[in-house]
Each structure stands twice: as structure tokens, then as C-alpha cells.
Specification:
alpha/beta; six-stranded mixed sheet; binds zinc ion
């Protein structure tokens, strides 16, 4: 497991460690990311947890659906809301292989998401600490507890391999 680094904003509540359930969820998210690559999408995968149970799993489907909003995180947020019958996801944790973008982080704030765990950082476009800090911005009406760097190397390696193969 990679080094764990807690989200940079000291005002955000953060837990120091991933639970066994979250680590297991990251393994499932990595599987979903590999599936995304198999149909030509950038390999990002996400899982939604509720009460310790996996209630949604998705890989990135932007290419597959030709839908700019079909990022793995948005797919699991939608699925989780449909299953729970509410858009308020305070008790849901999203586990995702890559740092969310501004769109997905914005959706997490709008969903009042309880907790986010992610793997690799996205220095170019990441909106949870790298480029922006959408989940711990006191100007917004909700902040999301975050844990970053879980299985970061495995998550990042999938992306590197995907782009290396695309270039060759
Ligand atoms: Zn996104």
C-alpha cells in the first residue's frame, strides 16, 4: 500500500487510515478501472459504500457512452442515490482510483457526500487538493472528509500503462 497523506486542508475532518472495508473497495475500484480500459476508456474506477456494504461499482464510461459526464464517480453517485432513494449521501463513502475532477467533486458537494477515499493524485486536473480544493472550501455549504493516497501506486500505474500503450 502506498504512503497515506491526509487532505491538505487542516480544517477538513480527516481520518488517518483506510478501513479494511475501504481497502477492499479500492481493490474493486481497480478492477472496474481495468474494465474501463478494456473498452477504451481512461482507467478510473469507483465504488460507493453504505453501512460497510458496496452499493455501487463503476468504471469510467465517457468513451463508451460518448457522455462527458459518465465519469466513474458520477456513475456511482447516481447509482447510490437511486438505490438509497435519496440524493443526500451523507452516510456514503466513495472510493475512487484517481483524484476527482471539478465536475465530480462538485457533484460530491451537491450530494452532501460523507467521505471520499482516493488513490492517485491528478496534478493537472485534480479538484481535491492538487489543482483545486472543492471538498474543503468553506465558501461552499458542505465539506467532505477525505483520505488520499490509498493504493496510489497501483492506481497510477494503471493510468501510466494505458497512456503508454495508447502512444505506442
Ligand atoms: Zn470526474
Amino acid at each position: 500500500m502506498g504512503k497515506l497523506t491526509v487532505g491538505s486542508n487542516p480544517t477538513a475532518s480527516a481520518t488517518m487510515d483506510a478501513s479494511a472495508i475501504e481497502l477492499n473497495a479500492m481493490t474493486q475500484a481497480l478492477d472496474a478501472a481495468r474494465q474501463a480500459a478494456s473498452w477504451g476508456d481512461v482507467p478510473v474506477g469507483a465504488v460507493a459504500l453504505y453501512g460497510g456494504e458496496v452499493i455501487a461499482v463503476a468504471g469510467n464510461e465517457r468513451e463508451r457512452r460518448q457522455d462527458p459526464s459518465a465519469h466513474a464517480e458520477l456513475l456511482v453517485l447516481r447509482d447510490a442515490a437511486a438505490k438509497l432513494g435519496t440524493w443526500r449521501l451523507n452516510d456514503v463513502t466513495v472510493v475512487v482510483t484517481l483524484e476527482p475532477c471539478t465536475m465530480c467533486a462538485g457533484a460530491m458537494v451537491n450530494a452532501r457526500l460523507g467521505r471520499l477515499v482516493y488513490g492517485a493524485t491528478d496534478l493537472k486536473a485534480g479538484a481535491v487538493g492538487s489543482r483545486y480544493n472543492v471538498l474543503s472550501d468553506p465558501r461552499l455549504n458542505h465539506e467532505v472528509e477525505t483520505l488520499i493516497g490509498v493504493q496510489a501506486e497501483a492506481c497510477g500505474a494503471l493510468l501510466k500503462d494505458f497512456f503508454a500503450t495508447k502512444r505506442s
